[in-house]
Amino acid sequence: MAMLEVKNLSKSFDELEVLKDISFDVQKGEVVAIIGPSGSGKSTLLRCINQLEKANGGEINVCGTDMLIKNAKGKTVYADSKVLRAIRLKTGLVFQNFNLFPHMSVLRNITEAPVCVLKQNKEDAKKNAMSLLKKMGLETKADSYPCELSGGQQQRVSIARALALSPEILFFDEPTSALDPELTGEILKVIKSLAADGMTMVIVTHEMAFARDVADKVIFMEHGYIVEMGAPEQLFGENASDRVKQFLQRFNS
Amino acid sequence: MAKDDMLTLLKLMLEYVLPTLKLFAFTLLFSIPAGMIVALLKMCKIKPISWLTNIYILIMRGTPLMLQVIVAFYFIPTVQKNDSAPELLRKFLSGVSIRGNYIFWAVLVAFVLNYAAYFAEIFRGGIESIPKGQYEAAGALGFSRLQTFFRIILPQVVKRVIPASSNEVITLVKDTSLANTVGYMELIYIAETQSSRLSSLVPLFMAGVMYFVMASVLTLLFSFIEKKFNYYK
């Protein structure tokens, strides 16, 4: 079952086209890594799917619900706001710079959305949050504030916060780019364990070794196009296109 | 001056601290929420609204508060007597009695309009200083726009605007003396009349000490509130 279908997606900022004819899909339980040089449109693609940017054309279907479609006149239109909000609850997004709420404790960062948005009862939300924190190895930090945590810990809290809404698909926008190499490992470990649990994930990353190890499918983007897409063995192997090889060379040296 | 006279004078002057504090408290009570509304109007995406709000702020900050107090005071009685004023406005204001508490309310209107403009600029700065990522994170978690504003943005804005607001609040204590211009009887009024009656600087000195004490209490209060918000960065 497809958890995400993107067809001919395009997006431009004024004159600048940053996404051109992007099509791909993500099946249930699949882990997709999106790689490519800076400015290739990877983050914009994720932001369009997560409704943080408005796409200009194409179609997006999330978990079987149409988000962006071509209507009878061939015009690209979004679903109505109720549907869009329902879709948001099925998706989770982890940001590069965490974006935790600084005025709330770690626990409240995680329980706020389940309580206010899903109307979960406070005790249940708290129980769920504590078990997520335990999974992240942060059960002792429940009462801390984000500013008291390291970057890696903050990112783990933000992953717990996204998981608290039980999303069906989880997106990561360069989750380790703001972290130093030592802390990167702890985040990658968490993502690997989520993959082992069967979580459907789309990860924009610069960690090539990680993409090769954990992804079922790798997408290479450049200049707003998908240049190559396939199993990691293909993209990281001998048969990859010259451009992909050239790009990966820099990471292997 | 004899000791008994001093005590009587002090007691008399303390009575006039009350109207000063009353104007101070009522101005804050109305101008802070009004300032928040003005800030939101100025940030409104509908151009004419933000444009008009901008003109209002420009006028309020660009003319003396004393002038605004005088205009507010004379506005209603002048319109009531003026035959060339618009009919609708005259009808609307004809019922307003200029006796009793009129001075207080007229002064209060000027103060609230003036201070709302200053608070609005402070609040706007605070709201605009919240990183975009906070809105995006809230949106991605499914918070509605209202929930995002009240639960995520506003609590962070409060912390950021406390230092600048404390400045305004302390200035306001001293600005209440401008109400004396149109005959509102407060601390400056009694200090001046007693000073000329007794041919003494003591009443003026006492008034100065009283303003100083009020401002100091507020300074302490604000540093306490600032510390309360120090639990996060």
N to C succession of SSEs of chain A: EEEHEEEHEHHHEHEHEEHH
- The name CATH uses for the topology of chain A is Rossmann fold
Percent strand of chain A: 25-35%
Please tell me the total number of domains of chain B. 1
Estimated helix fraction of chain A: 25-40%
Helix content of chain B: over 70%
Largest protein-protein interface:
A-B, 28 and 21 residues
CATH names the topology of chain B as: MetI-like fold
Largest sheet of chain A: 6 strands, mixed
**Annotation, overall tally of beta strands of chain B:** 0
How confident is the prediction overall: mean pLDDT of chain A?
Answer: 93
CATH architecture classification name of chain A: 3-Layer(aba) Sandwich
Rounded Rg of chain B: 22 Å
Order of helices and strands of chain B: HHHHHHHHHH
What does the main sheet of chain B amount to?
none
Helix tally of chain B equals: 10
What's the CATH superfamily of chain B, by name?
MetI-like
Radius of gyration of chain A, in angstroms, nearest whole number: 18 Å
- Shape summary of chain A: globular
Number of domains of chain A: 1
